[in-house]
Amino acid sequence: MHQSREGAAAAESARDPAIDLARLFCLVLVVVGHTMMVSPVLHPDGTVTSENTLGNQRWFEPVVWVLQVMPLFFVAGGVTGLHSWRRLRSRGGSALEFAQGRLLRLVRPSAVLLAVMFTGLWAARLSGVDPQVVQLLASGAGMPLWFLAAYLAAQLNLPWLAALHDRAPWLTLAGLVCLVVAVDCLRGALPALAYANMVFLWCAVQQLGFLLADGESMVRGPAGLLAVVAAGNLVLGAVVVLRLYSGNMLVNLNPPNLTLFLLAVSQAAALQLARPLLVRVAALGPVRRMLFFAGRRSMTVYLWHLPLLAAMSGLWLLTDLPQPAGGTAAWWWGRPLVLLGVLVLLAPVLALFGRLEERPTVSGTPRPRPAAAVVTAAVVVFLPVGDAALNGLTPGLLGGGAACFALAVLLLGRVPARDAGRGGAAGSGSPLPHPPIRANLEP
Questions:
Q1: Mean pLDDT (the chain, rounded)
Q2: Cα 264–269–275 angle (5° rounding)?
Q3: Which of 4, 34, 119, 392 has the fewest CB atoms nearer than 10 Å to its CB?
Q4: Taking the CA of residue 294 as centre, how many other CA atoms within 13 Å lie in the half-sphere pointing to its CB?
Q5: Residue 155 φ/ψ, nearest 5 degrees
Q6: Which of 258, 67, 77, 208 is nearest to 151 (CA)?
Q7: SS3 state at 350
Q8: Are 40 and 136 in contact (CB under 8 A)?
């Protein structure tokens, strides 16, 4: 027990509080934003549709430039992922172990979510709930899966992208951005090609995190960082004014395009600029405790909040309670209650399933998993996730996805835990540098 406390304390001390606070800020904005977007509508003829209330309002387009924090998620993921990979490599770990750990951390909680959703929606269907409502709940609840596909793709490519970064950081970033632009130029003639930027774009944004992790910067001082923030937004505004891209960052999100990289440049510079303030805020006792808990349960919150919101909205449609139209004053006044309802429902979910995010390791040095097992697990995960991201989620795909994810967990097994004390002497690779941003220990 004493040793486990020491290990937890060591892990916490190695975390970067600024990155933790930034990620918590992003997660809160995503949860709050989704409560203001999901708006199921029951029409007089009995049909049910879903409206994105905020996305349909013109005044929201410039606001979403500030609230679209998904690029910042990937910047932070680049910072933490690069350091996690270097730590593993310095202890003798391989790219295969890195991929195994990343897959397990995301797939284990997702498998349970898909299984619960499949069971719940088919129970609702068998109990007589209209198929339209069931499909609406499935498609709405499946929205977070695109993030799972994009984040996994970026993280699984991290070891070799890190190797390129170590040799030529700016050239690697420029190459990825050129690929993003090339896909954007060809997407008119080949619409399906646009989804290649699910990999190229988010890997480019992740590469910005690599630069932050190593202290790389084209500018120095607050004035220079402010100039980068302004320049990123000015270029973004220019491509929108020239009608090269939509000004709606929700439209630009799936499939992603260059506008999100420009937004990421501004957000990465803003993160550096705000870092001293973030560190001071994160040092406050209540905030530090909240960050410690949120960091261990963030994926559970992200995966479950939208299914819970969709379920709550679907149940609301089945009642005789007032159902104000989206965007009306009554609808806006009801948003705080909707957010409170989601938070209340999240509490038992975190208690039941939160531990699935714990580090998926086992003590000792068991035989590493065969490369074929890890590759097969990645393939069976991406099949349903890619289908859902491209074509939407259906109740049938939920069952298939749950089975694929369960198979992936069996194939991946557990990652061998490596002793940090022995790794420094026996591990391969160079020791960790000491950049301005220290490594967050991700599960």
A1: 81
A2: 120
A3: 4
A4: 19
A5: -70, -40
A6: 77
A7: helix
A8: yes
d(CA 264, CA 258) in angstroms, rounded, equals 10
Residue 30, burial from CB neighbour count under 10 angstroms (0-12, 13-18, 19+): buried
CB–CB of 202/150 below 8 Å?
Answer: yes
Quote the tokens at residue 66: 């500030």
Q: What is the pTM of this model?
A: 0.84
Whether the Cβ atoms of residue 249 and residue 78 lie closer than 8 Å to each other: no
What does the alpha-carbon distance between residue 164 and residue 271 come to, in Å, rounded to a whole number?
A: 24
CA 400 to chain centre: 22
The CB-based long-range contact list for 351-356 (8 Å cut-off, 24+ gap) reads 353/109, 353/112, 353/113, 353/300, 353/304, 354/296, 354/297, 354/300, 356/108, 356/109, 356/112, 356/300
- For residue 108 the two structure tokens come to 């284990």
| pLDDT per residue as tens digits for the range 74-113 | 999 999 999 999 998 998 888 998 999 889 888 888 899 8
Q: Tokens 């491209």 appear where?
A: 390
What sign does the CA torsion over 437, 416, 109, 337 have? negative
* Cβ atoms of 332 and 279 closer than 8 Å: no
Length reported for the chain: 443
190 burial (CB, 10 Å; 0-12 / 13-18 / 19+) is: exposed
